[in-house]
Amino acid sequence: MISRIKPCIFEPAIHGESTFLKQVAQSFGKACESYAAAARLQQQVALTALAMLCANHNGKLLDLGCGPGWIHPELKNYCHEFSAVDLSAGMLNKAQSLQLATAYIQADAAALPLATAQFDKVFSSLMLQWCQRPEAVLAEAARVLAPGGRLVITTLVQGTLQELQGAFATLDQKPHTQLFLPEAELIKAAGTVPQVTWHFEQRNYPLYYPDVQSLARELKALGANQVAGRSATGLTGRGYWQKLAVAYEKHRTAQGLPASYQVLFITGTKNAR
Fold first, then answer.
1. Which domains, from first to last, does the chain contain?
2. Measured between alpha carbons, how far is 139 from 247 in angstroms, rounded to an integer?
3. What span, in angstroms and rounded, lies between the C-alpha atoms of 269 and 273?
4. Are 177 and 161 in contact, with CB atoms under 8 Å apart?
5. pLDDT tens figures, 29-73
6. How far apart are CA 61 and CA 84, in angstroms?
7. Distance between CA atoms of 78 and 60, rounded to whole angstroms?
8. Residue 21 contacts residue 12 (beta carbons within 8 Å)
9. In angstroms, what CA-CA distances link 20 with 9, 17, 131, 212, 235?
10. 10 Å Cβ neighbour count for 86?
11. What is the pLDDT of residues 132-175, one digit of tens each?
12. Is the separation of the CB atoms in 118 and 146 below 8 Å?
C-alpha cells in the first residue's frame, strides 16, 4: 500500500540552513509541473547513473531527491521495491501520482527519518549540489545502506554554467548562478564516510540553446534560477538582458550557445561488517 507523505523536515544544525532549505523546497515545488519537460540534462545523467546499478529485481532501493518521479518506471528493473525521498512536498505529490514507490517521505537528505541499513541500493541524481552539507548527506546515504549495498550519486561541480558565469561577470560581480563545489571538496567530504569504498568520475555534458533567454527559461522551468539567487538581483531590464546576450554571444558554435554542465558520478559499496 502506498504511504502518505510524511512531514519529516528536521531543524538543521547550521545557522541559516533552515532558510536555505525552505528556499530550495519552495523553488523546486513551484517547478513540479514544468520540471520533467525541461530536464534534458537530468534525464541523461540519471539514466547513465542508473546503469551503474545492477539491473535485477532484488532488494530495496532508496531514491534520494526523487523530484517528480519521472524515472520511477525505470526503477522497477533495479529492485523489488523502492522508497522516494524529497525535500519538496510539491515534487513528492507529483511523484506520488504515479503510485510506484512503497513510501513517499518528505525529508532533508542530511537527516533522514529512516532506519539504519534498510536499503540494498541508494540512488540520487543531481540533488547533492543543492545541499549545504554534502558530507552529512553522504553519511546518511551510507547509514541507511546495508553492508555490501551499492550507492550511486551524481552532482554538479565547479565549471558548471561557466559560460553563463563569464557573461554575467562582464556586467557586474553579483552571484547570478549557483557556486558549485570543486570535485576535490566532494572527494574530501566522502572521505569522512570510511565505511564505504568510493569511486569518482567527472563527465562534461554540453547543452545548446538558440539564445540566452532560452537557457534562462529552462533554468526557471527546473526551479534552479530561484535557488541560485538570480531573482534577487533585479534582472528585469531589457537593456541588461541585451548586454548579457552580447557577452554570451562570443561562445556561440554551429550548434548554438553552449552551456557546460560538469557532472561528478560518485559510486560506492558499503563495506561488509
1. 6-158+179-204+261-270 (3.40.50.150)
2. 41
3. 12
4. yes
5. 776 777 677 779 999 999 999 999 988 999 999 999 999 999 999
6. 9
7. 9
8. yes
9. 13, 5, 9, 27, 21
10. 29
11. 899 999 999 999 999 999 999 999 999 999 999 899 888 887 76
12. yes
| Cα–Cα dist 80/4, whole Å | 20
The three cell numbers of residue 159 are 565549471
Q: What is the DSSP string of the chain?
A: -PPPPEEEPPPPSSTTHHHHHHHHHHHHHHTTTTHHHH-HHHHHHHHHHHTTS--SS-SEEEEES-TT-TTHHHHTTS-SEEEEEES-HHHHHHHHTT--SSEEEEE-TTS--S-TT-EEEEEEES-GGG-S-HHHHHHHHHHHEEEEEEEEEEEE-TTTTHHHHHHHHTT-----S--PPPHHHHHHHHTT-TTEEEEEEEEEEEEEESSHHHHHHHHHHHTHHHHTTGGGGTTT-HHHHHHHHHHHGGG-BTTBEEEEEEEEEEEEEEPP-
